[in-house]
């Protein structure tokens, strides 16, 4: 036994030196196989990196198998390279199956995941559960169609805009726009409890062709009750969306002096009524900026504003997104406003 071990060690560490190098090459298949093998080991990590590696190793071992069969005529070389080829093919099939399981059913859902959910660190499997709640369906709305009508449409779903633009109005008064990757009805969703019913207080109209996804209220509540992570995720997304809508509306509140009002002030809500309601029953007002002269009665009549007519816009005031921006008549003259207090600290007390 010791003699066999000694001969093995001698063969390993004291191998005979080559008497001479052969000038014959092993053929094109051998060199092609090793070249592809060299390129295959340049793949990266991850599923796609492994797919690249095994995708190149498979043809490499195929070339070496053919070389051992046709040139070398060695059964051991053919057997080992054939086994390596089969192992690479099995790995490729496994990787393709994994990518298919982790993939999304449509390009629009994949784009939604990449743009919204992936930056938040949401796993693909969790997004699949969220997409399953709206049955992986993308809905379409033509330009001019109404998603909701104030006082008529019940609040029974939550929708997320993928493309297009939605106009939000109250009694014909423009409020703000809803852009892609924003919720259509996040304020309505947060205003009701799961067991409460309600109707929209605003009208939502598509200004252009829109595509969106929509969750049924009960089904989404069921998912959120089962998955705590999904509940926290929607709480963050809805809170951010509502904050954006408030700031968009805040940018359209101006008074005559050109000062930008802050919608977060606690007693500002009573000045958000439509102009038609605030003007009803009030006597004609006079523009104090250009008082009429006593000697010219016609000029004095021009300073009066008939009942029901809106004041002309002042070119010095900053305008909003369009001509329908919400402009308040005179916030400084209204009772309970910030100007009645010495400072904002006294106002907030």
TrEMBL record:
- Give the CC-aspect GO terms: sarcolemma
TM ranges: 47-72, 78-97
Print the keywords alphabetically: Membrane, Transmembrane, Transmembrane helix
Primary location class: membrane
* InterPro entries (UniProt xref): cNMP-bd_dom_sf (IPR018490), POPDC1-3 (IPR006916), POPDC1-3_dom (IPR055272), RmlC-like_jellyroll (IPR014710)
Q: Which residue intervals are annotated with compositional bias (Basic and acidic residues) in the record? A: 283-302
Segments carrying the region annotation (Disordered) are: 274-328
- Which Gene3D superfamilies does this chain map to? Jelly Rolls
Question: Single Gene Ontology BP term?
Answer: skeletal muscle tissue development
Protein location: Membrane
Topologically, how does it sit relative to the membrane?
Multi-pass membrane protein
Look up keyword NAD and say if it applies: no
The chain positions of domain POPDC1-3 read 26-252
| Pfam families from the UniProt entry | POPDC1-3 (PF04831)
Q: Name one GO molecular function term.
A: cAMP binding
Q: Which family does it belong to?
A: Belongs to the popeye family.
Query: Which protein, by its recorded name, is this?
Result: Popeye domain cAMP effector 2
* The organism of origin for this protein: Hippocampus comes (Tiger tail seahorse)
Lineage from the top down?
Answer: Eukaryota, Metazoa, Chordata, Craniata, Vertebrata
């Amino acid at each position: 036994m010791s003699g066999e071990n000694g001969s093995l060690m001698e063969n390993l560490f004291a191998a005979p030196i080559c008497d001479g190098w052969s000038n014959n090459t092993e053929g094109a298949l051998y060199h092609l196989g090793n070249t592809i093998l060299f390129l295959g080991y340049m793949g990266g990590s991850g599923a796609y990196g492994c797919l690249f590696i095994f995708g190149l190793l498979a043809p490499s071992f195929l070339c070496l198998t053919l070389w051992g069969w046709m040139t070398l005529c060695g059964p051991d070389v053919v057997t080992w390279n054939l086994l390596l080829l089969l192992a690479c093919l099995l790995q490729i099939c496994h990787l393709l199956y994994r990518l298919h399981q982790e993939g999304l059913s449509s390009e629009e859902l994949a784009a939604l995941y990449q743009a919204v959910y992936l930056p938040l660190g949401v796993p693909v499997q969790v997004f699949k559960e969220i997409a399953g709640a709206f049955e992986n369906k993308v809905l379409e709305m033509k330009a001019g169609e109404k998603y909701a009508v104030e006082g008529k449409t019940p609040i029974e779903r939550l929708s997320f805009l993928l493309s297009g633009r939605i106009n939000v109005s109250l009694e014909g008064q423009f409020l703000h726009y809803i852009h892609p990757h924003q919720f259509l009805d996040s304020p309505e969703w947060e205003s009701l409890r799961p067991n409460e019913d309600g109707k929209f207080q605003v009208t939502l109209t598509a200004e252009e062709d829109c595509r969106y996804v929509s969750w049924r209220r009960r089904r989404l509540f069921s998912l959120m009750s089962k998955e705590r992570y999904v509940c926290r995720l929607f709480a963050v997304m809805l809170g951010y969306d509502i904050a954006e809508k408030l700031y968009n509306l805040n940018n359209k509140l101006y008074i005559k002096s050109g000062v930008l009002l802050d919608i977060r002030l606690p007693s500002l809500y009573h000045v958000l009524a439509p102009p038609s309601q605030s003007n009803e029953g009030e006597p004609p007002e006079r523009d104090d900026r250009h008082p009429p002269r006593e000697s010219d009665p016609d000029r004095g009549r021009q300073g009066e504003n008939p009942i029901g007519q809106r004041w002309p816009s002042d070119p010095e005031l900053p305008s909003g997104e369009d001509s329908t921006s919400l402009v308040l008549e005179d916030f400084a003259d209204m009772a309970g406003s910030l100007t009645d207090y010495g400072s904002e600290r006294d106002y907030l007390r």
